Fold this protein.
Amino acid sequence: MDEVFKALADASRRSLLDRLHAKNGQTLNELCEGLSMTRQAVTKHLVILEEADLVTIVRQGREKLHYLNPVPIHQIGERWIRKFERGKLAALSELKRQLEKRDE
Amino acid sequence: MDEVFKALADASRRSLLDRLHAKNGQTLNELCEGLSMTRQAVTKHLVILEEADLVTIVRQGREKLHYLNPVPIHQIGERWIRKFERGKLAALSELKRQLEKRDE
DNA sequence: TTGACATGCAACTATTTGGTTGCCTATTAT
DNA sequence: ATAATAGGCAACCAAATAGTTGCATGTCAA
């Protein structure tokens, strides 16, 4: 879980996930196109995404195809974000009460 | 949005949010209890959480009360995670097809 | 009013991170 | 066979991060 949060912390990596969401199964070179960093930098980001299990690779000849795995993202939604949505309204109203109390 | 992802990337900060979720409106010293880092380290984490608008503070005398703001977490769920959940099944089946194709 | 308590500020440090360059290897096409 | 293509590896670098220590300030209670 920590690895997933860490992987998602970088905007370049999130944009790689976006690109895979738009078009799945891209090669490394495809994913490098239009980006202002070297292929090696992109490789490093993809390794981090693989280690967080957000991307799965399939080697085909000299090419490396990258596939998005949406499961960890879904799990963050289910196991982490939802927890804070329960009681969301309660938290906000408590804060509001406190802010008003300050000016008494 | 980037600030929120960055703020959530650290396990100590996520656990601070958890603690505020369990008991809202805690002081700095309260939040430090039981943690194996100095008060100053906790302060730095809280500043990052404030800047990401995940925590709101209310000063009361010499104390500083911390309140959880669940809105940015909710927004990540809505604006980011949901996007990847649409088409989740499609992505997985495409990957499966590709993995099988490899062994033909 | 003086001491205890809650927090703030600044300087410093070690480690991690995001990126680079240079070169090497494996596969495909001519 | 050989050149072009796709990717891998390792060393290096600068900046950001997570933490520390030491001291200062503001507030409350005896």
